[in-house]
Design goal:
Blueprint lengths: L19 H20 L33 H4 L28 H8 L14 H8 L11 H4 E9 L4 E7 L8 E8 L6 H17 L8 E6 L3 E7 L6 H7 L6 H20 L2 E2 L8 E3 L8 E3 L6 E2 L18 H4 L6 H16 L9 H10 L14 H10 L10 H4 L17 H11 L3 H11 L4 H13 L7 E2 L1 H11 L2 H14 L8 E2 H8 L2 H5 L4 H14 L7 H5 L1 H4 L20 H10 L8 H8 L9 H9 L3 H10 L1
Antiparallel strand pairs: 1-2, 2-3, 3-5, 4-5, 6-9, 7-8, 10-11
Bound molecules: adenosine-5'-triphosphate and calcium ion (2 copies).
The site of one calcium ion has 4 residues, from loops.
Length: 640
């Protein structure tokens, strides 16, 4: 592979796909993309187009933009170069700063004020924006006197929101210590969102600091011109540079070492109720140039707090790494896991899983295209590696592994001595289990009996983290202790009480490991597996032997079977058991509630309930396993 660095944008000279026919295809693709860019919105996909090859070679060696490149802070503050260029197909080095994974344009527009096409700079003569900016409260309450405490050194990196320099502590106990200072110019904060971002970045760093794989935060300062975030100096450069310097691919083992650290810190953030929202190789730094140097997550500028059941709707992040549900404006911590999947894919094969020339093209790929695992080097890779990446890149966030689950995946779990962190998902699932009918609990218990050793690995680790009694049981007290032990003060204030209240039923009873498995398994995730049909059939057989029984009408009317909880008050129904001749009564009841007569309720009843004995059919069993989320219950109710 040739070297492209230091040259102007002549990607073709290094392009292994630059044969004339390929070039023509590329041009056609670009034309289509440009047309799409002009008109189509993200969700307006017409027909899936044959994607231009998503392969995205990395060049080696990279003249990595040196950590200590000589660039003066003043030159630095004049704005980044790549912000004004379209995302190229090939990585060219040195990158004009900021990094090539550009933020979604809307993100920059909302945060930095108006953004011209392909441009993140703030228009210098935009009077209205200046007036609005003048009204913003840019006092953060951070320490003053930055200049008297630190001697600022050279620039070591830059992004859209700030630039980072080395600095030396001038006085006090740490005199002489080298630190990193991220300088965020207040002049760039032209919107309330931008000031809020800076405030939150510091708040989150302050709350999370202490984890081995997260940049250590020391303090925040401000003066009239800037906010200064003082952090540990990571001298090993960005993960992106290492990927490039290795020519794009990591061996599976080397990739595991990186993944382990990324998953660890992200699982930690998620447990603390923080979603990063901008995970990409540029936002992970090595502490030293050493091969085995520790990796640290940086840049919490787009991060936010999220409660266990909350969905965020702000479209945020960098295009290549953004999860489909972010584009659909309803997401939570799973979105970070998607970005980790993109990083894993790049580490292992050196190309981007979702690629197009334009932002809207990338979005369409993210929403519709499946990443290729057919081209080299994938065929020679272990099946576990492929499965690992696929389960991180599951388009349905409910089917996607969590960061803690990913650490238990067979591909990675035997790599070194992995310490699996507590998973917030477990509490979410137990909460839903505790609110379920006895029939659903029995169904879940049957399903839990079909779990394989691999699936049980994660549940065993999670149960152990809750420190069961010597009788092998947990109750609310165990959960409380485990949470207190594993979460930061910030999280204690924000979420622990909510979680404990939602699991209140465990105050008066215990849960053994078998029940824990039934409560904490995710039906959605199992459904995403190839062997789901087997799991479900096997579980149904077990349920038939021990658990299936004639359905009580209240249950049918309840959320779990028909999804009619809100429009079908169970108290109105007194018949104990559904038999064939009672269908009519149920149908009348449903019609009395003003539901459309065209709705084939009888079909639902026919398919979900066995007429011979009024017990659940296989389909009814699967529906019961899922329960019905309030969202689908609502849409079901609307449809009727
Ligand atoms: N603690 C640190 N030690 C060394 N270099 C750092 C440190 N923090 C940041 N940098 C460098 O500065 C760059 C910009 O920092 P950061 O990503 O926080 O800025 P940003 O403006 O928020 O970027 P973005 O455009 O990605 O949002 C990083 O990519 C990295 O190269
Ligand atoms: Ca960054
Ligand atoms: Ca940032």
């Amino acid at each position: 592979m040739g070297l492209c660095h230091g040259k102007p944008a002549s990607a073709e000279s290094c392009d292994p796909f630059s044969s004339p026919s390929h070039k023509k295809k590329e041009e056609e693709a670009t034309k289509k993309e440009t047309e799409a860019e002009a008109g189509a919105t993200v969700t307006e996909e017409k027909a899936p187009r044959p994607w231009a090859s998503p392969f995205f070679p990395f060049y080696s060696p990279s003249p990595a933009h040196s950590l200590f490149a000589k660039r003066s802070p003043s030159a630095a503050s004049q704005g980044g170069g790549s912000a004004t260029s379209t995302p190229g197909r090939f990585f060219k080095r040195p990158f004009p700063p900021p990094s090539p994974a550009k933020h979604i344009r809307a993100v920059l527009a909302r945060r930095l004020g108006s953004v011209k096409p392909n441009e993140a700079a703030i228009p210098a003569d935009d009077r209205e924006e200046r007036r609005a900016a003048a009204g913003l409260d840019k006092n953060f309450g951070f320490s003053k006197g930055f200049a008297s405490k630190y001697e600022i050194g050279e620039e070591v990196g830059r992004g859209h929101f700030g630039y980072t320099c080395t600095a030396k502590v001038k006085k006090g106990e740490s005199k002489g210590q080298q630190v990193a200072v991220k300088v965020i110019p207040k002049a760039k904060m032209t919107t309330a969102i931008a000031t809020e971002d800076a405030r939150r970045e510091v708040k989150i760093l302050r709350a999370l600091t202490g984890h081995n794989n997260l940049v250590h935060f020391y303090d925040a300062y401000e003066d009239n011109d800037n906010v200064y975030i003082i952090m540990e100096l990571c001298e090993g450069g960005e993960l992106l540079d290492r990927i490039l310097s290795r020519g794009g691919t990591y061996s599976e083992n080397d990739a595991k070492a990186v993944m382990l650290q990324i998953l660890n810190v992200v699982a930690f953030c998620h447990l603390q109720g923080v979603v990063h929202r901008d995970l990409k190789p540029e936002n992970f730094l090595f502490t030293s140039k050493d091969e085995n140097s520790q990796l640290k997550a940086i840049d919490f500028g787009l991060s936010d707090f999220v409660k266990p059941d909350e969905r965020l709707n702000d479209i945020v992040g960098s295009a290549y790494y953004v999860a489909p549900e972010v584009l659909h404006r309803s997401y939570s911590t799973e979105a970070d896991v998607w970005s980790i999947g993109v990083i894993a894919y790049i580490l292992l094969c050196g190309s981007r899983p979702f690629w197009a020339r334009t932002e809207s093209g990338i979005f369409r790929a993210v929403l519709k295209a499946d990443p290729s695992f057919a081209e080299p080097p994938w065929p020679s890779m272990s099946p576990e590696a492929k499965d690992f990446v696929k389960r991180l890149l599951s388009k349905d966030p409910r089917r996607r592994m969590t960061a803690a689950q990913a650490l238990c995946h067979p591909w990675i779990r035997n790599y070194k001595d992995i310490k699996v962190p507590l998973d917030i998902l477990v509490f979410r699932l137990i909460k839903s289990y505790l609110r379920s009918s006895s029939l659903r609990k029995a169904a879940l218990r049957a399903l839990s009996k079909t779990l394989t050793v691999d699936e049980l690995f994660y549940l065993k680790r999670q149960f152990a983290l809750l420190e069961p009694t010597k009788h092998g049981c947990i109750n609310l007290e165990n959960i409380k202790m485990a949470l207190m032990k594993n979460v930061t003060d910030q999280m204690k204030e924000l979420h622990v009480q909510d979680i404990l209240v939602s699991l209140g039923a465990l105050q008066y009873r215990r849960m053994d490991f078998d029940e824990f498995c039934a409560a904490s398994l995710s039906v959605h995730q199992l459904e995403g597996l190839d062997r789901w049909e087997q799991h479900a059939r096997c579980a149904y057989e077990l349920f038939e032997k021990d658990g299936n029984r004639a359905i009580v009408i209240e249950e049918l009317a309840s959320l779990e079977v028909l999804g009619l909880q809100n429009c079908f008050p169970s108290s109105a129904i007194s018949l104990p058991i559904l038999a064939q001749d009672q269908h009519g009564i149920l149908l009348t009841r449903i019609r009395e509630l003003g539901l459309s007569p065209s709705v084939p309720v009888h079909v639902v009843l026919r398919d979900w309930i066995r007429h011979t004995d009024g017990k659940l059919s296989f389909l009814g069993f699967v529906k019961l396993l899922h329960g019905v989320s309030s969202r689908s219950a609502q849409s079901l109710a609307k449809a009727r």
